[in-house]
Amino acid sequence: MERTSAQLNELEITYQYGVSLDSLGLDNSELVRSDFIFVFTFILKISRQTNSNPIFEYLIFYRYQKSQFIRPHLCSRYKYLTLSHLFRVKIQTLITSALIVSSLYLIWLNCARNLERRYASKYAVVTGATGGVGQEIVAEMLKTMHVIAVDRDEQLLTDLVLKHKSSKNLVLPFVFDFTNKLSTFGPKFDSFLRQYNVDKLDVGMCFSNAGIGEFKQFEASSFEAKARFMQVNFSSHLAISDYFCKLFLTRTHAKSALIVTSSLITGTCGRFFALYHTSKTMLSALAASLYSEYASKGIDVLAVHPSSIANTKFMKGEGMKTLDSFASKYISHIGNLWISVTPKQIVAQMLSRVGKLNQTFVGFATVLNAIQGALLGRNLNAFLWSKCTFLDKLFTKNQ
Ligand SMILES: NC(=O)c1ccc[n+]([C@@H]2O[C@H](COP(=O)([O-])OP(=O)(O)OC[C@H]3O[C@@H](n4cnc5c(N)ncnc54)[C@H](OP(=O)(O)O)[C@@H]3O)[C@@H](O)[C@H]2O)c1
């Protein structure tokens, strides 16, 4: 008498497991009726009877199934249920999809925006316009619109205007020192716009980029100096954000952009740069909060985090003149390390990421630093830095 496939399966199961379906209270018609239900009932029952783990039993069952002890018509269905098969499919699919999605995402991220179409802006405001990054922003923005260059030094602004006098767009100089009373920024800027006959609604982009560095022991400066530092490095951005968010909300005909220059240092708290870390962390937090509040109202807010930047005045600033000549020499070289990025790279990221992200990181060192900052957290980061006492000796060795 020829055996049915169900009877064959029953024989194989009995042979492999040493149990009959009868003893498990299963009917071999279930093998035919529903393979799926059968497998799970079978595994549950056998694990109960042998007092073992159902997952373990399932894996054994799968091994038998793979070695063809169980009929192919069963295998073809089970293979979609097996853990390892599912896992294998997932890994392959996951890797392939992740590669495709991340490549497409990177291409999209790096595509330059059509600024004219998105912002319909005739003027871009740039603070810190005579610095390394600022000059690059000015040069790039002049390709599509006029620039209002903000800086504390009138002579440097005049030089900047002359440098671009053959450009098809204008550089308008606005002298403002962010160590002055910040509440005067708005009224002074308003009268500046009136003086140059600029319609406020034509100002659709602002780069809040001015900033200074500080590398010294916390106790080495007076409270007044600390307050001044925080005013330039954070409150100036607050004043700019206050003015431009309000202005941009009135630009109902197009989107607007507020881009702030933060730093790699947000990912690390550490010895000698307490204030710089604090000011830039506040700035990045402000940008993220403003993004969440205003993205739906047509304002793109972006914080850009560069690592050390090549060829800017930053490292030669007053606050970077550290405690002895060895330290100064060391610090002045940071800007030209192989991990440094160029102002061009920073501006390219500003203009391609705006409206897509609210935080962006320029250079692999910044990306790594942001990851370690997130992984270690403030507790561990500060603990590790607290153990770096050798830095004190290094930076104060002549004292
Ligand atoms: N360089 C780096 O390694 C680095 C790394 C990460 C982030 N950043 C950030 O990148 C931004 C641009 O820096 P940068 O490298 O281009 O430095 P930079 O060449 O020194 O430029 C800084 C700009 O800020 C202006 N500024 C400073 N204090 C001011 C004040 N009180 N009022 C008005 N303007 C003031 C400077 O004006 P003057 O020209 O008149 O001095 C200059 O135009 C800063 O926010 C900085 O914190 C720099």
UniProtKB/TrEMBL annotation:
GO terms for molecular function: oxidoreductase activity. The lineage of its organism: Eukaryota, Metamonada, Diplomonadida, Hexamitidae, Hexamitinae. This is Putative. Pfam families: adh_short. Keywords: Membrane, Oxidoreductase, Transmembrane, Transmembrane helix. The keyword Transmembrane applies. The chain crosses the membrane at residues 87-108. It comes from Hexamita inflata. Belongs to the short-chain dehydrogenases/reductases (SDR) family.
